[in-house]
Design a protein that fits this description.
Length: about 80
């Protein structure tokens, strides 16, 4: 698969343990995907994370499509830890 450049997503050592996040935030792709796989709609995600644009949310979903195994593991880990 060719490398994909994401406009809104970054991975930086020292920020969220290097996990893919939305640039300028500490919101991980797995946070957005976790809401959606648990039944949240796009509108629900925007209400829960009001600083995100639809474009950022859709890009999280695009990243998820390309990295399903990685993100599924992070979502499962997050769910097993329960609420912070």
């Amino acid at each position: 698969m060719p490398a994909v450049n994401y406009r809104y997503l970054v991975s930086r050592p020292g920020v969220c343990a290097g996990k893919m996040t939305i640039e300028g935030t500490r919101i991980g792709v797995h946070d957005v995907v976790g809401l959606i796989v648990n039944g949240a709609s796009l509108e629900d995600v925007q209400r829960s994370l009001p600083d995100l644009t639809k474009a950022q949310i859709y890009e999280c979903l695009a990243y998820y499509e390309d990295h399903r195994t990685e993100i599924d593991a992070l979502v499962a880990e997050q769910m097993s830890e329960g609420p912070g």
